[in-house]
UniProtKB/TrEMBL annotation:
Membrane-topology annotation of the record: Multi-pass membrane protein
Annotated PROSITE patterns: TONB_DEPENDENT_REC_3
Domain TonB-dependent receptor-like beta-barrel, first and last residues per copy: 9-143
InterPro entries: Beta-barrel_TonB (IPR000531), Beta-barrel_TonB_sf (IPR036942), TonB-dep_rcpt-like (IPR039426)
The organism of origin for this protein: Aureimonas phyllosphaerae
Broad class of where this protein is predominantly found: membrane
The UniProt record lists the keyword Transport: yes
Family the entry assigns: Belongs to the TonB-dependent receptor family.
Protein name: Iron complex outermembrane receptor protein
GO cellular component, as recorded: cell outer membrane
Length: 172
């Protein structure tokens, strides 16, 4: 359990934030990782978070925009031999539970949603020992560009769309 000083979106202008007073956070997170066969791994995680206002007009209410339940499942495969040695692919799903539409918890909830993510990578060390530690990777968050309308204190906005992030790294 943690007590924090929080800010939330201003009910009159979603572009601003206001001091909301003390909030209390209780929850837990659990994660499991499994290597199924050579090169194939799975990761599953679950988070429960109860974030409530401790004082003010919204005392005892859930904080807006924060899901109580989150679950994710991610699978990753990286070829360990043959012509595809060093090439990897990943696919995952994120479940985000329903969230409150305002601090008073009087507006309709934002519904639960599922987002799909993907990745592709290549380990250059598999092709040439001199490149050991060099890896290129592309991650795609929200693969299908799902952009639900979310309510936050009377203002509606679209969820962040597809996001593509590339990286080139060297580990030594």
């Amino acid at each position: 359990m943690a007590e924090i000083q929080g800010v939330t979106s201003d009910a009159t202008n979603v572009n601003f934030q206001v001091q909301s007073g003390e909030m209390e956070s209780e929850g837990f997170e659990i994660q499991a990782t499994a290597s199924i066969v050579d090169g194939l791994s799975l990761v599953a995680s679950y988070t429960y978070l109860d974030l409530t206002f401790l004082e003010g007009d919204n005392e005892g209410n859930l904080v807006t925009g924060i899901p109580r339940h989150q679950f994710s499942l991610w699978g990753n495969y990286e070829a360990v031999s043959g012509p595809l040695d060093g090439l990897g692919f990943g696919l995952g799903a994120r479940f985000l539970g329903a969230t409150e539409g305002n601090g008073a918890n009087t507006q309709p909830e934002n519904g639960a949603r599922i987002l799909i993510d993907a990745s592709a990578s290549y380990d250059f060390g598999a092709a040439d020992q001199r490149l050991e530690g060099v890896r290129a990777q592309v991650n795609v968050n929200n693969l299908f560009d799902k952009r639900d309308a979310l309510c936050n204190n009377g203002c509606f906005y679209r969820e962040q769309g597809r996001q593509v992030i590339g990286s080139l790294r060297y580990r030594f």
